[in-house]
Amino acid sequence: MSMQLGLELARLTAGLDRLYRDVPRTQSFLDREGLIPVAMAQVEPYALKNYGEARDRLEALQARIPGEAESELRRAYLTEMVDSLLALLDTFEGRQISYAERLRRQMRVDTQMVSDEILDGYRRTIRENLDELGYRGGSLAEDVGRFEADSLVPADQVLAVMGDVTREAQRRTSEMMYLMNDEWLEPVRLDDVPFTAYCDFPERKMRLNLAMPFTRSAIKHLACHEAFPGHLVHMALRQRYVAEGKMPLDGAQVVTSSASSALFEGIADNGWFFLDWINTPEDVVGMTLERLRAALRCNAAWMLHAEGRSHEEVAPIIAEAGYQDLATAKNRIAFLRHGLRAPFVYGYWCGDTSTHAVWEKVPKERRTEFWAYLYGNMHTPSTLRDFWTV
Question: 254 pairs with which residues across the strands?
Fold first, then answer.
């Protein structure tokens, strides 16, 4: 298979990352990440003089895709990925681009506000399972509060509990999906960051913000999301496939707020489904709270960036609707202040639901085939949907 388009896309993206990093910014964690937070292979960046040259070269690459892409899947993916980078360039150059357009072109999602119908469906599921667990008699907010208080893992025990749960996730992944006995992600503390957890692939660390509350289900979710079979497994496989010549070089790059972002997060968020690890009412409550709150963070982003409302106004709305205290809600939407990451939050809920919509149709006997398709190709929500044959 010809890998030329993937090689050129990777070198252009690396060059764009270098241009982005050359603009003076703060020393915050998110600014230090740049456009490419993780590269799983050495890529020689194209030396680009400015964003204008980057645009010209991306448009030239875009024109070659129809005639040179190795397959229909690659043609569709590369078309969406290059357009997402062109939309990113609009933001870097200060061109006029609406938040809705950033979502559509960068993240490749149509969602703007997640509907009350969907949110209320999550609430019904939470209510039914809380009733089964014996958390009843109060308002839904009160009963969620009691459930989470009883499920809370003390901060001084989070790292140890996370290690135990991650080892079980590793065991399940190795038995059911991919042999990962030689991979590990060590849980460590990370302070003063606007997120809950981070997969530091080069250092093989799971960096956890212990200022945030961690319930048992949150720990289970993060063990699957950040490590097995989520980000750690996904990046380790992409690193291996690129090195073996089975995946084009652009597969070795994690690119922020791009066409690849929703599936990067969607694979991770479906990890506990891939491992058949949602099997108690407590699991269902925890999983559905994750989805409810992820959807509400999309709505928070829309209110902030499309409607122009302030963080001080939005945080209490999200806190009440998601049954969280105000400090936690503020922390969970703090990264939305970051220009590059402003649309990225949609990658979680949209990635989760688009991946799950396909996963639900996969018969058990075809799961291995599906995982090969999912992990072995670069995807957007539409390519995942359109090129998997049910």
Answer: 38
Assign 39 to helix, strand or coil.
Answer: strand
**88-92, 182-186, 188-192: segment of lowest average pLDDT:** 188-192
348: closest CA among 292, 308, 304?
Answer: 292
pLDDT mean across residues, the chain: 95
Of the candidates 223, 192, 198, 212, which has an alpha carbon nearest to the alpha carbon of residue 152? 212
The two three-digit tokens of residue 339, written as one number: 């220009």
**Cβ contact 339:91 at 8 Å:** yes
Read off the pLDDT of each residue in 38-51 and give the average, rounded to a whole number.
Answer: 97
Q: What residue type is assigned to position 222 of the chain?
A: L
Of 388, 355, 342, which is closest to residue 262 (Cα–Cα)?
355
Burial of 39 (0-12, 13-18, 19+ CB in 10 A): buried
Residue 85 phi, psi (nearest 5): -70, -35
Give dist(CA 375, CA 239) in Å, integer. 11
Residue 221 has a pLDDT of 98
Residue 198, beta-bridge partner list: 207
Q: Maximum distance among all alpha carbons in the chain? A: 65
Contact between residue 277 and residue 217 where contact means Cβ atoms under 8 Å apart? no
Rounded to whole angstroms, how far apart are CA atoms 55 and 191? 37
Task: Out of 99-103, 137-141, 208-212, 243-247, pick the least confident.
Answer: 208-212
Is the Cβ–Cβ distance between 298 and 122 less than 8 Å? no
Distance CA 65, CA 259 (A): 16
Binning pLDDT at 50, 70 and 90, where does residue 255 land? very high
pLDDT-above-70 percentage for the chain: 97
pLDDT for 1: 46
pLDDT of residue 20: 92
Tokens of 101: 């357009």
Alpha-carbon distance of 54 to 12, in angstroms, equals 7
The dihedral region occupied by 94, where left means phi > 0, alpha psi between -120 and 50, and beta the remainder, is left
Q: Name the DSSP letter for residue 244.
A: T
Q: Is the pLDDT of residue 218 over 80?
A: yes
Sign of the torsion angle spanned by Cα atoms 120, 300, 227, 216: negative
Amino acid at 29: F
Q: Kindly report whether the peptide bond that precedes residue 229 is cis, defined as omega within 30 degrees of 0.
A: yes
Torsions phi, psi for 253 (to 5 deg): -115, 135
